[in-house]
Specification:
Layout: E1 5-10, H1 15-26, E2 31-38, H2 42-52, E3 56-59, H3 67-70, E4 77-80, H4 81-89, E5 96-99, H5 107-115, E6 119-122, H6 125-142, E7 146-148, H7 151-160, E8 168-175, H8 185-188, H9 193-196, H10 206-214, H11 216-229, E9 236-240, E10 246-252, E11 257-261, H12 267-275, H13 289-292, H14 307-317, H15 321-337, H16 345-354, H17 365-387
Parallel strand pairs: 1-2, 1-5, 2-3, 3-4, 5-6, 6-7, 8-9
Antiparallel strand pairs: 8-10, 10-11
Helix pairs in contact: 1-12, 4-5, 5-6, 6-11, 6-15, 7-11, 10-15, 11-14, 14-15, 15-16, 15-17, 16-17
Bound molecules: NADPH dihydro-nicotinamide-adenine-dinucleotide phosphate and magnesium ion (MG).
NADPH dihydro-nicotinamide-adenine-dinucleotide phosphate binds at residues 11-17, 37-41, 58, 60, 85, 100-102, 105, 123-126, 150, 202, 204-205, 208, 266.
Length: 390
């Protein structure tokens, strides 16, 4: 019999968080939700609290609109803000922390969960981009499992399982190419946030949808794969595959390529991470290749979509530079969503922020946090002096 897992869902009201709840609801005997964290969608959070009756919840620091949650019935404990997220992530007795937060704010709770000895199912790729080395060292030290939720990494995890690492030649990440796949730089100058938010194959939170449109998402995922699987960046390739049926591939030394295919639906990689090492029936529609028709592949247009190369440059410099790149990207995406910069300004802001930033020698949490904060200030300054439309 499979042991019930006590789980904590950070970001339970978001795209990944809500789909995690769907997976949990499919297997209520396998999971007991003991903790939830959300920021603003309190109606959704309240429903989840009623259903799961967790021990602890965490809400964001914003005090508006939370009166319903402010006076929770005992024994529910309410914590708040970044400190609260760490407290929740290290709740004693939990088995697995699902990190579905967005942005580098997810790094501290990930480290807290690992320090407490909990396994982590990680959707929050920014954690590994900003602090990959620290996180992987902590995972080793505490002997916990860090399972990816990102579909590409779940694919790689399956293709690599049981293989001799010495036989791996390249990891091949697939990318849908986003809504602007075949656009020229000129066309990209006039695209608006509402166009970028219209992703052809995946329905996701706003930040990751913009990252998909700029190809920064693939850059972040390359760094994520580098840390998770210990493969050098130059052996992690990217191929555009608009149908999003092949979720990623591994090329071996004999020339064989092993791929994982499925209907594009995040509930499958989420379930893989939640039930690992078990494999169980899922909520996802069967993948009928005879109905699918063609699967196509192209080289990414790295001249037009510069974010991918910025990520390779950041990881080549290493140190705190990936954290700087990530922070600048978070700022630029926010300004783009607000209509204050144009789409093509996003890579320009990131490049200018990274430029001249020392990579640093000692990588610890204090240095990464400081670099993240300095990079945000620098990116905002660059935007207000060179790019701001308002
Ligand atoms: P969403 O924006 O949809 O969700 C983010 C979640 O985090 C929400 O529940 C939000 O709460 C919560 N949150 C934000 N700030 C805080 C805070 N300070 N305290 C507590 N909760 C907070 O993002 P996604 O689900 O799309 O993405 C999450 C992560 O997963 C990202 O790193 C993304 O790159 C990655 N990912 C996403 C995929 C997808 O399909 N969506 C696919 C692969 C990876 P609230 O809603 O209440 O404001
Ligand atoms: Mg992905």
């Amino acid at each position: 019999m499979i042991k019930q897992k006590k789980i904590i869902i950070l970001g339970s009201t978001g795209s990944i968080g809500s789909q995690t709840v769907e997976v949990v609801n499919k297997y209520p005997k396998l999971f007991k939700v003991v903790g939830l964290a959300a920021n603003s969608r309190f109606d959704l959070l309240l429903g989840q609290i009623k259903k799961f009756q967790p021990k602890m919840i965490c809400i964001g620091p914003d005090p508006t609109g939370i009166s319903a949650i402010d006076h929770p019935q005992a024994p529910l404990k309410l914590v708040r803000g970044p400190g609260g997220l760490k407290q929740l992530a290290s709740l004693p007795g939990a088995d697995l922390v699902v990190n579905a937060l967005v942005g580098a704010a997810g790094m501290d709770p990930t480290l807290a969960a690992i320090s407490a000895g909990h396994d982590v199912a990680l959707a929050n790729k920014e954690t590994l981009v900003a602090g990959g080395q620290l996180v992987m060292q902590a995972v080793k030290r505490k002997k916990v499992r860090l399972l990816p939720i990102d579909s590409e990494h779940v694919a790689l995890h399956q293709c690599l399982e049981g293989r001799d690492p010495a036989t791996v030649k390249n990891l091949i990440l697939t990318a849908s190419g986003g809504p602007f796949r075949s656009y020229s730089s000129k066309q990209l100058h006039s695209v608006k946030a509402r166009h970028a938010l219209n992703h052809p194959t995946w329905s996701m939170g706003k930040k990751v949808t913009i990252d998909s449109a700029t190809l920064m998402n693939k850059g972040l995922e390359m760094i994520e794969a580098h840390h998770l699987f210990g493969i050098p960046p130059e052996r992690i390739k990217v191929v555009i595959h608009p149908e999003s049926i092949i979720h990623s591939m591994v090329e071996f030394c004999d020339g064989s390529i092993i791929a994982q295919l499925s209907t594009p639906d995040m509930r499958l990689p989420i379930q893989y991470a939640l039930t690992y090492p078990q494999r169980l029936p899922s909520l996802v529609k069967d993948c009928r290749l005879d109905e699918q028709g063609e699967l196509t592949f192209h080289k990414p247009d790295r001249m037009t979509f510069k974010c991918l190369d910025l990520a390779y440059r950041a990881i080549a410099r290493n140190g705190i530079i990936p954290a700087v790149m990530n922070a600048a990207n978070e700022v630029a995406v926010e300004y783009f969503l607000d209509g204050r910069i144009v789409f093509m300004d996003i890579p320009a802001v990131i490049e200018k922020t990274m430029s001249g930033f020392p990579a640093g020698r000692r990588i610890d949490i204090a240095n990464i946090t400081k670099a993240d904060s300095l990079a945000r200030t620098k990116a905002e300054k660059i935007i207000t002096t060179s790019f701001n439309k308002k």
